[in-house]
Amino acid sequence: MITQSHALSRGRRWGVLFDVDGTLVDSSYIHTLAWWQAFRQHQHDVPMAAIHRCVGMGGARLVDTLLPAGRNREADAEILTSHAAVFAQSWPSLRPFDGAKELLAQCHAGGLAIALASSARRQDLAANRRALGADSFIHAATSADDAKASKPAPDILVAALEAVGVLTADSVYVGDAVWDMQAAAALGIPAIGVTCGGTSAAELRDAGAAEVYEGPRDILDNLQASAIGRLLAPADA
Amino acid sequence: MITQSHALSRGRRWGVLFDVDGTLVDSSYIHTLAWWQAFRQHQHDVPMAAIHRCVGMGGARLVDTLLPAGRNREADAEILTSHAAVFAQSWPSLRPFDGAKELLAQCHAGGLAIALASSARRQDLAANRRALGADSFIHAATSADDAKASKPAPDILVAALEAVGVLTADSVYVGDAVWDMQAAAALGIPAIGVTCGGTSAAELRDAGAAEVYEGPRDILDNLQASAIGRLLAPADA
Question: Which residues of B touch A47 (CB under 8 A)?
Fold first, then answer.
């Protein structure tokens, strides 16, 4: 469900899209272990580093990418349910990254529209938002329910941009996964990569990141010089 | 404790040192979560990606690297104990990487001395060895008890080499962490990096890896051309 908590002006609007898992909330490793346990419960042995690199895709696509093509697909739905059940056990432990809330607040104070563009399950996104405690700075949020095709398909980003009434040319995307960079590139949106989700700067740059920072605090410390800073003071504003 | 299960000849001997966590056994992510939980239990909020990059150091050094210098150090011992307690819960779940046992078997069959060079706790190393099921191919193994200074100090590697009677010039080291590459470089031992522990090829190369493979299966598939292959058929043998 797309939630829209602020009325936006009809004039031109600049905006920032944020991935959530591994970008604003420190959950990539928790997801990795939860998928690993879900796979093990269904007799699939998938290396954790391979899972880690796929976190950020939608769940169905992650399962399809990591399991052999010739498998019995009847168990796929159960694997998704198992992952959800294991991950939900960690909801109370979710922690935002240092500076995440302040980064959203500062973008909001600068007049930017802010949308969370996530392929997460609706319930998991709600848990992330509780951890963030920054709802008053967020104009819209997507979840897995808002697009047929999950990242690296750009559908989630299109849905998020439409929800805040921002054009691709007037936006920046912030994410931690290779899939985030690819989804942004498919739309021509400049992508800021963050390494706090555990993917290295080189991997993010190879996937198309225009800039790479350590995490929200590092973006905040360099905000004016960043791609977000250029939206805060657009040349033609 | 250094265990030596095979008598080695008095002549010149070539050997391979293997890191264990994240290299032969898929445990880096489990360690990351266990350290994160141990830190949280003592009111320290450490990002998981930062912990992940330190797994492979000895525990005391990891704690000292990740926590603020001005902290109350009295809790450090408790944090180490907490990590050990949380990690031990995963002993029955530990899984070797695909090809790990076969790689050790093939090196052994080729006449190489094989030593596990790990900074892990003795009990955790024992759990890893149970998961590997390859004791008959392993000539010696170090644990945290065998060297005062843990990786990136090379002491563990020196202890492992001495245990199997192999000179640095006649050895190769296989590891998944930046610290493994640095420890090998300090001794001038060629280091093979594996990305299965979740550290990227670029990070391993930057830290000095001479070759990078995806994991044990990938080394096995390229054994003859690898640095291990050159030991298997040394020019002056």
Answer: 26, 97-98, 196, 215
